UniProtKB/TrEMBL annotation:
Keywords, sorted A to Z: ATP-binding, Glutathione biosynthesis, Ligase, Nucleotide-binding
Annotated PANTHER family: GLUTAMATE--CYSTEINE LIGASE
Pathway info: Sulfur metabolism; glutathione biosynthesis; glutathione from L-cysteine and L-glutamate: step 1/2
Entry-linked Gene3D superfamilies: 3.30.590.20
Cellular component annotations (GO), alphabetically ordered: cytosol
GO molecular function, one term: ATP binding
Name assigned to this protein: Glutamate--cysteine ligase
Keyword Cytoplasm: no
Pfam family, one: Glu_cys_ligase
GO biological process: glutathione biosynthetic process
């Protein structure tokens, strides 16, 4: 249950005693008695980055040959565009090992992309709206052509520029020991139901309190002018001499309506209270016709323009800051995988690229997310209607657009009471510190507690946040100048560093294996794409 304590003294707002955060004292006491329940947390990372030329413009070359097939490579693929790389780590129980693996992927790529660089920011620059951006290419198999057609649909629905925005995804799962300690001896269908319910609790708390992520780690307080072309906005942007637009207290414009969002999905009514309810909402969305997308058409001059004209072409099109996930089997949709086995892990999607790390993410962020996910699993999370879910967006928008503004307040759901953000943040970190002590007790050292001590200072001093730090650089040299400087420095650094976990031979072997897998897929197809597509559209 969410408890709120508000004490007004002489109407002096700043002297309120606040407790907006749910009371998790009993859950924390339980955790401290069962520390081994957190032994075996699993996580993984995905990082997107644009390939750019030395002058910051988008690379027009094909996917680097040394990286093999983007369709079937285990670790390195592409997202929307041919120039939009995506690095994927295997599931890992060791944070340092996972980050080193990710760094090896960057090291090898940096040495095998000629004179190109990896763009170190979430928001691209030097790309004009309407510029011809080559979609990611996956060969001639029906699956590969389907993936490119899906991207054609995204381009025609939302514009290619929005699709070149990059982020980091953090995948997280709690060990079975946690669920057994919390739910008793569970197995089979009972485990599927209870574990899924537990992860939906995490998701609901994330919607209520996940604004803390862009507050601390948002790193896109500014945009290039191309993002405002044809988009009327009432936001009070300030403009620098080099043509950059910024909001002085913004944290993550990537997460704003100017960034990677989808307004057409706001009325879908998908909720996160029950597995079957969630899947039903998702399946309905891919069957619901859209008048807006019907205007695009399905085909023009013999060229297919989108998979279909429904609200979602496929389930992956659902925009969400967090997703329930299960590894899919061959030919299985994400929702069918969830129905089969329940939620296996959570995908956090609200992280901007960390411009202060050569690999776009660092240990401090991963440890914080561990703490926050555990807290979300412990804290009470009353069920949320679709209208309350929409109300949580108010807090997110405030933090996204003016998170560092002095005196900024937050609310609870659709209620009117308001509370100072710094106090709410510090209340949350009091709980996180106890989670940190538990994690440190089973892992040794004080790494988690150190992260708490470092980050809690950001609430009294917003200048310590990522957005404040990167904005200072951007105001001096612009987004383009900042991006090019970081990209050049990281290119030189990564090219010089030796591989630590993977070997050169591992990359060569995976390149060859991925190309072989793609060729086998292409050879195995017996149906013409048009016939195959009718069964999958």
């Amino acid at each position: 249950m969410v408890t709120i304590t508000v004490m007004l003294i002489k109407n002096d707002f700043d002297r309120r005693e606040v407790n907006l955060i749910p009371d998790v004292s009993q859950a924390l006491a339980w955790l401290e008695k069962h520390p081994q329940a957190l032994k075996g947390i699993q996580r993984g990372l995905e990082r997107e980055t644009l390939r750019v030329n030395a002058d910051g413009t988008l690379a027009t070359t094909g996917h680097p040959e040394a990286l093999g097939s983007a369709l079937t490579h285990k670790w390195i693929t592409t997202d929307f565009a041919e120039a939009l790389l995506e690095f994927i780590t295997p599931v890992d129980g060791d944070i340092e090992h996972m980050l080193t693996f990710m760094r090896d992927l960057h090291r090898y790529t940096a040495r095998n992309m000629g004179d190109e660089r990896m763009w170190p920011l979430s928001m691209p620059c030097y790309i004009a709206e309407g510029q011809d951006i080559e979609l990611a290419q996956y060969g001639t198999s029906n699956t590969g052509r389907f993936k490119t057609l899906y991207r054609e649909g995204l381009k025609n629905r939302y514009g290619a520029l929005m699709q070149t925005i990059s982020g980091v995804h953090y995948n997280f799962s709690l060990p079975m020991a946690f669920w057994q300690a919390k739910c008793g001896d569970i197995a089979g269908a009972d485990a599927k139901e209870k574990i899924s319910a537990g992860y939906f609790r995490v998701i609901r708390n994330y919607y209520r309190f996940g604004w803390v992520i862009p507050y601390l780690f948002g790193a896109s307080p500014a945009i290039c002018s191309s993002f405002l072309q044809g988009k009327p906005t009432s936001l009070p942007f300030e403009k620098t001499e080099c043509g950059m637009y910024y909001l002085p207290y913004a944290t993550s414009l990537r997460l704003s309506d100017l960034g990677y969002t989808n307004k057409s999905q706001s009325n879908l009514g998908i909720t996160f209270n029950d597995l079957y309810e969630y899947v039903a909402g998702l399946k309905q969305a891919i069957k619901t016709p859209s008048e807006e997308y019907a205007k695009i058409g399905i085909e023009k001059d013999g060229k297919r323009l989108q998979i279909n004209s429904n609200v979602l072409q496929i389930e992956n099109e659902l925009y969400a800051p967090i997703r329930p996930k299960r590894v899919t089997r061959s030919g299985e949709s994400p929702s069918d995988a969830l129905l089969r086995g329940g939620i296996e892990y959570i995908e956090v999607r609200s992280l901007d690229i960390n411009p202060f790390s050569p690999i776009g993410v660092d240990e401090q962020q991963v440890r914080f997310l561990d703490l926050f996910m555990v807290w979300c699993a412990l804290a009470d999370a009353p069920e949320m209607s679709s209208s309350e879910l929409a109300c949580t967006r108010v807090n997110w928008n405030r933090v996204i657009l003016e998170g560092r503004k002095p005196g900024l307040t937050l609310g609870i759901g659709c209620e009117t009471a308001q509370f100072p953000l710094p106090q709410v943040g510090k209340d949350l970190f009091r709980d996180l510190k106890r989670v940190a002590q538990t994690l440190d007790s089973i892992n040794g050292g004080e790494a988690y507690q150190k992260v708490c001590d470092e980050l809690v200072a950001c609430f009294d001093n917003p200048d310590l946040t990522f957005s404040a730090r990167i904005l200072r650089s951007m105001i001096d040299t612009g987004i383009g100048g900042t991006g090019k400087a970081f990209a050049e420095a990281y290119r030189n650094l990564l090219r010089e560093e030796p591989l630590e976990i993977l070997r050169e031979e591992d990359f060569v072997a995976e390149r060859e294996a991925s190309e072989r897998r793609q060729q086998e897929m292409e050879a195995a197809d017996t149906e013409p794409f048009a016939v195959w597509l009718e069964k999958h559209a």
